[in-house]
Write a structure and sequence with these properties.
The structure holds two protein chains of two kinds. Chain A is globular and about 70 Å long. Chain A has helices spanning 3-9, 13-34, 43-50, 52-85, 88-99, 106-117, 122-129, 141-164, 170-177, 182-209, 214-219, 227-237, 241-268. Chain A is built from 13 helices and no strands. Chain A is an all-alpha fold. Chain B folds into two domains: 10-229, P-loop containing nucleotide triphosphate hydrolases (Rossmann fold); 242-366, Nucleic acid-binding proteins (OB fold (Dihydrolipoamide Acetyltransferase, E2P), Beta Barrel). In chain B, the strands form three sheets. In chain B, strands 11, 12, 13, 14, 15, 16, 17, 18, 19 and 20 form a ten-stranded antiparallel sheet that branches. Chain B has a six-stranded mixed sheet with strand order 6-7-8-3-9-10, with helices on both faces. Helix content of chain B is 25%, strand content 35%. Chain A binds chain B through residues 168, 170-171, 173-182, 184-185, 189, 192-193, 270, and chain B through 56-58, 77-85, 87, 89, 91, 93-95, 104-105, 108-109, 152, 156, 162.
Chain lengths: 280, 367
């Protein structure tokens, strides 16, 4: 590193310090607690490995996170494509549409969903008008998924758009003049080039959906707990910091595993990993 | 060494393109012979690229028909036009190897695997890149990428090849090398080429015929020699090559017409009245010192405003009342003029051309 670089590097210290104090230190504390609370030993991880409720919670969380990732990816892709291929004006309008939910609190949005989805809510009233039996959505995983997907959408759309706007618009045209019909030009040229954006968005959405607390607490059911809610119960209601720590460590390992998996898939597919997150 | 293609005949009939209130191209009529190398030349926004995009099918013409080999293709989708294309900035698929890029059109046109392999190798050999098949486009230099784009466009031997400013991103030396390569490939292949460029030297060097565009309209179509010697209007004369131009008027004189300035009058065939311009190519003008008495043709007093040595010749920029331009004289000439010197321009009347000027708007600028 040249002296000039090291001098500028000083400016990064406050941020590094914040990450160290605000992230690394607490994680270290959790790690330590998971093997020391209430007494030193591996009892917390043994509990995690043998307790079927804990397993259910973990699998359910992963299942919901995977579904949320898939649903947002499928819904976000056409929207991002539209944004990337529109004029600057239309793109700005669509951008506001994406960011709109950001300006409302998560809590407010969860309550809005309660109003819509509850037994005598907006949805069932409308369905009733068509003679359709009322649906039980509130208090199920479906409600949790709906609430989560809505909140997560911008995290999927934005990385997608930033990769898509970088795709040379003449590439699909080049494929077409070489004899490829529209759909083939899209599938063989545009889509593969947009994948880094899909990967980046999926990674963020998946990781974020493992940590949702308010939405499942308000829209889901206590019998269908997810990791964050179980953590809350363990730590703040049962004061079992050790079990909570073990659960948190397990989540961290899961995130690491998903990261690694995506990294490998990207590598096999020849997608530059540097581009993942490049859109953030 | 390789099979020849039967080049396609291309006809544009009254093609026009309107973007809202902006006319990008109008009244474009053009017939390209099979196997011909034709350039669409003009400044940016002149309609040349719009015309090319309409041939490719990227833009839908607002009016007119496009025919390939007498067949109307105006409404045929892009992928069924059987056209090859080299894009400005190459447009190589960044996620495919060089080989896969070149193979792509062959795949789309349903060639079987051994045939694809053979044609890909042949195309890469043609541009001397046979060893680069496994590389990714990003690992190649600009010139190499351009050659891959060329190989990709010719791999399936399209009867019509479109090129959109393919060399504009390259430096001069590389450009000239690739021009030779493009000429050779065109000769070898026999395909019809429509080449868009804003570089007059490139158009001159490559083309059988040049189509000069300005403000959405064709100004003139002709061989490089015809355009240089006989430009049909002021725009073509100024856009192609250097020249001396002198403003004047065409007046009726007896039964004929005369080009008139206060310093000379010349009879002309041009049947027109009003403002006009006289154009002489730099090699046809002679500079003589103001005191000189040897005056065989018309003369105009001028001042030398700049002087550049270009190897075998000296380039003088001259300015005179109602005109100016460039004169080249051979290094060996006895007379050597200095900047600021008063001189006389003289030329053989037969070697100058008189072009009527478009009326109204244009005149305002000139006066």
């Amino acid at each position: 590193m040249s002296t000039k670089q090291s001098r500028t590097a000083v400016l990064a210290w406050p941020a590094l310090l914040l990450v160290a104090l605000g992230f690394i230190v607490p994680v270290a504390i959790i790690l330590v607690m998971s093997v020391t609370d209430p007494q030193p030993g591996t009892q917390n991880f043994e509990w995690l490995a043998t307790n079927s409720t804990a397993h259910d919670i973990m699998w359910r969380t992963i299942y919901i996170a995977v579904l949320a990732t898939l649903i947002t990816a499928v819904l976000a892709y056409p929207f991002a494509y539209l944004m990337a291929t529109s004029s600057t004006l239309v793109r700005s309008i669509l951008m506001v549409v994406v960011l709109l939910p950001f300006w409302t609190s998560m809590m407010v949005r969860a309550f809005a969903w309660i109003i819509i989805l509850q037994k005598n809510g907006l949805l069932n009233t409308v369905l009733g008008a068509f003679g359709i039996e009322p649906l039980t959505i509130l208090g199920t995983n479906t409600a949790v998924l709906i609430g989560m997907c809505q909140i997560l959408m911008p995290f999927m759309v934005l990385p997608m758009v930033s990769v898509m706007v970088g795709i040379d618009s003449r590439l699909p045209l080049a494929a077409r003049i070489m004899g490829a019909p529209k759909w083939k030009a899209f599938l063989q040229v545009y889509f593969p080039l947009s994948l880094p954006g899909v990967f980046a968005g999926s990674l963020i959405v998946f990781i974020l959906s493992l940590g949702f607390y308010v939405t499942p607490a308000l829209l889901g059911s206590p019998r269908q707990q997810l990791i964050p809610n179980a953590l809350f119960t363990q730590v703040l209601e049962l004061l079992s910091w050790g079990k909570g720590g073990a659960l948190a460590v397990a989540t961290l390992v899961m995130v690491g595993a998903v990261f690694l998996l995506l990294f490998l898939v990207a590598k096999v597919m020849g997608i530059k990993i540097g581009k993942i997150g490049g859109g953030l | 060494m390789s099979t020849q293609v039967i080049g396609a005949a291309l006809s544009l009939r009254d093609i026009g393109k309107q973007f809202g209130t902006v006319t990008a191209a109008a009244d474009v009529n053009l017939d390209v012979e099979p196997g011909e190398f034709i350039s669409l030349l003009g400044p940016s926004g002149s309609g040349k690229t719009t015309t090319l995009n309409m041939i490719a099918g990227f833009e839908e013409p607002s009016g007119g028909r496009i025919m390939i080999n007498e067949k109307d293709i105006t409404d045929i989708p892009i992928h069924r036009r059987n056209i090859g294309m080299v894009f400005q900035g190459y447009a190589l698929f960044p996620h495919m190897t060089v080989e896969k890029n070149v193979e792509y059109p062959l795949k789309q046109h349903g060639f079987d695997k051994p045939e694809r392999k053979r044609a890909t190798d042949e195309a890469l050999a043609k541009v001397s890149l046979e060893k680069y098949g496994a590389r990714m486009p990003a690992q190649l230099s600009g010139g190499q990428q351009q050659r891959v784009a060329l190989a990709r466009a010719i791999a399936y031997k399209p009867p019509l090849l479109l090129m959109d400013e393919p060399l504009s991103a390259l430096d001069k030396a590389l450009r000239e090398g690739l021009q030779t390569e493009i000429r050779r490939i065109h000769r070898d292949l026999g395909t019809t080429v429509v080449y868009v460029t804003h570089d007059q030297d490139e158009a001159m060097a490559l083309s059988d015929r040049i189509v000069v565009f300005n403000e959405g309209r064709i100004q003139q179509i002709g061989t490089p020699n015809e355009l240089y010697k006989n430009p049909s209007n002021e725009f073509v004369s100024q856009f192609l090559g250097e020249s001396i131009h002198l403003d004047g008027l065409i007046e009726e004189q007896g039964s004929g017409h005369e080009f008139v300035r206060d310093d000379f009058r010349l009879p002309t065939e041009v049947d027109h009245r009003g403002p006009a311009q006289l154009m002489i190519r730099p090699e046809s003008v002679e500079l003589i010192s103001a005191s000189s008495a040897e005056q065989s043709g018309p003369t105009v007093a001028a001042e030398i405003i700049d002087k550049v040595y270009v190897g075998h010749s000296v380039k003088y920029m001259v300015s005179c009342r109602g005109g100016g331009g460039v004169v080249r004289s051979r290094q060996t000439d006895v007379d050597d003029f200095t900047i600021g010197q008063e001189v006389l321009l003289t030329w053989e009347a037969a070697r100058s051309r008189i072009l009527p000027l478009a009326t109204s708007a244009k005149n305002g600028e000139e006066s």
